[in-house]
Amino acid sequence: MKTLCITGSVQSRLDPFAENLGKAGASAARPTTRDQEMTIAAWHRKVLATQKDHASVPSTSAPGHVWEQLVGEIFLANHNQPLWYWADTGSTLLLDFWFNFDPNTFFLLLHTSPHEALMDAIEHGADTLEVLQNALDDWYQRTRQMLRFHLRHPTRSILLDSNDALGQPDAYIDVLAQRWQLPLETIEIEQTWQNDPHHLTFYLVDKVLQNQPQALALHHEVQASLFLINDSKAPASKPELGDVVSDYLEARRLLQTGQADNDTLRQTLKAAQSQLADSNLALQDRQAKLVNLETDHRHLQAQSEQYLQELSEIRSGLENSDQENRLLLEQLRHTLENLEKLAQEDRHKSQQLTELNVERNTLLSQIDLFAKEKTALAAVHDEQARLANERKTQIDTLSKEKAGLVAARDAL
């Protein structure tokens, strides 16, 4: 496994060359296996964030044991790749750390001139002299670190002009493959790099740099240590005054066109703002209606909940009624069974009653007969009683007569 650390002072010069390496067979650095967000770029950001003053921190300073463990995990995640790389400007401040960390790491140092560094800063939004000065200071620090490192470790590092490397990617990739025996494919890479600086910007930046002899001196010192495929390559020439004036006039024309467009846009914006105000009024009206609708909705929802509660109670009552009905049906069935039994008993009793009526009628007939006989017997009894009474009277009379006779006899 071999590793390429691609670094420099301007990130926009590193990324295109790294992309060319990817086309030639190298693999971009993978994150740690346990945390996909811990990439080599994230590691650089976090480590450098702990440095309050990068300029005062030498490149040989170790980031710390925890950070070394994390970067060890990144290397472990990439150990199966024959050749992998990363491209990060942050590595310029940690070159000695990377050099000591892994002996199979080689360093591709892409140099950018101070003119190009300041133009890149302007392109990315630098709008004050203070910001430009900060950008130049950063370039100076990183460029000095790269030059010192390369002079100390020329066998594991190569210092290239970024424009030249991006303009001839095939040739420089072949140089890297032969220099360090890297598993890179010799392929034809389409050259898409365009280095066409704006003449007016270059002219103004050059005027600024005329007051920065230290930066220009460092740039010239680096140029003496650059690896160039063509040793006789001429340095970038300054733009002619006519080109600067042409750029200025074009910029002025574009400014005037932009101002006219801005006036049109202001009118459009004013009309849009008027429409927006009308729309806001309409929106407020709709919002008021919406509030009313929401209030009505809440009321309807409350009524609906009340109806649902009542419906639930009705359903519960129906369920209870259904249960009661089932009980009543069961009772009715038992009652019908009992009625059937009673009906059978009633039919039996009716039959018995009929038989009893027959017997009763027979008995009544017998009673009538007995009554007649009784009447007759009573008449006979009365007659016999009368006769008995008459006999008794006769007997009493006879007894009296007998007593009189006895008394008369006794008297005799």
Descriptive keywords:
alpha/beta; Rossmann fold; 2 domains; 5-stranded parallel sheet; 5 strands; 70% helix; 6% strand; coiled coil
The coarse silhouette is rod-shaped
Question: Which CATH architecture of the largest domain?
Answer: 3-Layer(aba) Sandwich
Radius of gyration: 65 Å
Q: If you average the pLDDT, what whole number results? A: 84
Estimated structural class: alpha/beta
Main beta sheet strand tally, sense and closure? 5 strands, parallel
Spatial sequence of strands, sheet with the most strands: 2-3-1-4-5
Strand content: 5-15%
CATH topology tier name of the largest domain: Rossmann fold
Number of strands: 5
Coiled coil: 255-356
Keywords: Coiled coil
Overview of the structural elements:
It is a single chain. The chain is built from 11 helices and 5 strands. It starts with a strand and ends with a helix. About 1% of the residues have low confidence.
